[in-house]
Amino acid sequence: MGDILHALPAVTALRAAHPEWFLGWAVEPQWRGLLAAKDAVARGPAMPVADRIHIVPAKQWGRSPLSADTVSDIRRVRRELRESQYDVCVDLQGAVRSAVLGKWAYSPRLIGEAKPREWAAQYLFDERVETQGVHVIEQAVEVANAVAGEQLPLVKPWLPVSGVAERRFGAMAGKLVILNPGAGWGAKRWPAERYGVVARTLAEKGFRVVMNAGPGEEKLAHEVNAASGSVAEVLSPELDELIALTRRACVLIAGDTGPLHLASALGVPVVGIYGPTDPARNGPFGGRFRVLRHPESRRDHSRRAEPEAGLLTISAEDVLAAAEDLLKEAATDGR
Q1: Can you list the domains of the chain with their CATH numbers?
Q2: Residue 321 predicted with pLDDT over 70
């Protein structure tokens, strides 16, 4: 989810600068909703960010790589990509898997970063772009510049608008705060009891607190809510619903995880609670935000189960103070 949201500004810039171009996007099925709504309404962008979405269930393939279904589906994707006759493929993820997908399209040019996230991916690229930006969004735009042959601006990404989801959450605007206690792995996960303190305090101040539970995070969300005295609403929204819900929040509080990047992309103020990942590279981008991170925390993507030591130095009071700062700023500007 985060990788797509970090790539979206670059692709939006390409689309806005060259609306006549045909753009395709290869994506895991669960993230298709970030690119297109089933029932898109006119409040969305005038045109989709991608003309064609190629569904690539690579994680599913990994679970049964030798099955007949996997082999058949791989052939389908390769055929789709090749038949689309792309003039250029761009790898904005910097992974070997995404670079291989680019190769499957048999386009004359496959472009990626000179120093991709997975170093081996660079050997699959036909063209390597030396990027200067610190944040991954800036780097993605630099790679897109190589496609456009010009300097593209940093733009707000286009995200789809679902009519059904908008109607469902239409009444939730106002003093709405979203907490997202889950994270990709334990080292990035701030303690549940501290989220509980934050939820309880905000509820006492009159805010409507929603606990977002992503797939597999339902138990954690209920633990946080129990620690808060059950003051929050625990929701497990579909992706189009999460977009609609987040649009209505006055602040979102989370670690380095997809919903935080979604809120940032939508221009919603965010409090980022960071530990082993570097917010300069992967943090909120644009808009209002506060990032809390201990100065001795080091970048480490090891999938450790326990919270990183620096993360544990961040108190509930620190998070509440950051949230209150953002809320005051928004109130001053009349948001």
Answers
A1: 2-148 (3.40.50.2000), 163-332 (3.40.50.2000)
A2: yes
